[in-house]
Amino acid sequence: MRIPLVDHHVHGPLAHDVNRRELEMLLTESDREIPAGTTVFDSQVGFAVRQHCAPMLGLAPGASAEEYLARRAELSADELARIFLEGAGVSDWIVDTGFGTDAIWTIGKMEERLSGRTHEIVRLEALLESVAADCLADGGGPGELQDRFEAAVAQAAGHAAGWKSIIAYRYGFDFDPARPSREAIRAAAERWLGEADPARPLRAADPVLLCWLLYAACDTGLPVQLHSGYGDPDLDLHRCDPLLLTDWLRAVEHTGSSIMLLHCYPFHRNAGYLAQVFPHVYCDVGLGINYSGAACRQIVSESMELTPFGKLLFSSDAWGPPELHYLGSLLWRRATAAVMSQWIAAGDWPAHEAERILGMVGRDNAVRVYGLDRRASSSAEGGAGER
Ligand SMILES: [Zn+2]
């Protein structure tokens, strides 16, 4: 059975053609040049592209990297995006619009060109930086930042499906978990904007400000996504273990916001523990699935150890190459079906439950947590695509 999925953490596909080097750079979380004498096509994700994406372009499974790239070059970026994103079988894309927006389709274009619906996740740091830039431009200064940011959050809450924080990238999860006072926020804002270099874009990295954003988001009651674990080398992975959030998770338990731990690899077992013990915590293993390719069954299996089935979600975390949107779905479907079949074959699971659990993780949990059955898609909510 092929159920339509909700991809609860995803970005747009590439808007422009890319050459081999550019494509390889986008098929790894490294931001460094591909080392001489090596290729991303000799990795799990490279093998997954050759094995599973090649047939989508009319080639045999296992086509060589050269055959694949030659065929790929015959199609435009928009054609590739349509083939792979429609092939993913996703009915709802919950889109993080806060990163690399010039290189990829906007959420408006996704809504217009794809059969699935889109819903916007607003990135807290990007919202703060845009409000702060306005404060500096019109002389409001740090003194007005708090009120203006809270007004912007209230306004965005009218259309957003949820929030996303990248505190893991900007600082780490070992921040002071207590709600910062208005005085502390003001002092941090003065420090930040006082030191701002007018020649460079503002970048919020002060832990007091980042923690304030999390509380402001939780106060709305909407789901709050947190990048956890695996990501590019901007982050210090050892400071992105979600267990470091334990005290903060206790502090926001009463707010009514669901905390969505994204990616989590290689801390997905820790995330599963948190999802089991805290009613408001959910997790996924997006991103790690794409990059582990044929080995992702193990990760999917481990993600189903402690995590209650009602607390686990599907995501691709695809950004850029549309192969990642497709593989995120395909590899997750294959791995989840395989691990459940194994448990059923061993006599450890009731055979008739597999379909229901697949539906929960692939779709129903996201529909419930984000209230998708009550939401219009982003285009119907008034210009979210221009954000
Ligand atoms: Zn992401």
What does this structure look like?
There is one protein chain. With 387 residues, this protein is of the alpha/beta class. It has 2 domains: 5-16 and 77-386, TIM Barrel, CATH 3.20.20; 18-75, no CATH class. Helix content is 43%, strand content 10%. It contains 16 helices and 8 strands. The chain has helices at 20-26, 44-53, 65-73, 77-87, 107-113, 124-137, 145-156, 167-170, 182-194, 207-218, 246-251, 268-277, 288-292, 296-303, 322-345, 354-369, and strands at residues 5-10, 90-96, 117-123, 162-165, 224-228, 259-263, 281-284, 312-313. It has an 8-stranded parallel sheet. The longest helix is centred in the last third of the chain and has 24 residues, at 322-345. The radius of gyration is 21 Å and the shape is globular. The two termini are 37 Å apart. The structure holds zinc ion (ZN). Zinc ion binds next to loops.
Gist?
The chain has 387 residues and is an alpha/beta fold. It folds into two domains: 5-16 and 77-386, TIM Barrel (Alpha-Beta Barrel); 18-75, no CATH class.
List keywords for this structure.
TIM Barrel, single chain, 43% helix, 387 residues, alpha/beta, 16 helices
Produce the secondary structure layout.
Blueprint: E1 5-10, H1 20-26, H2 44-53, H3 65-73, H4 77-87, E2 90-96, H5 107-113, E3 117-123, H6 124-137, H7 145-156, E4 162-165, H8 167-170, H9 182-194, H10 207-218, E5 224-228, H11 246-251, E6 259-263, H12 268-277, E7 281-284, H13 288-292, H14 296-303, E8 312-313, H15 322-345, H16 354-369
Parallel strand pairs: 1-2, 2-3, 3-4, 4-5, 5-6, 6-7, 7-8
This protein binds zinc ion.
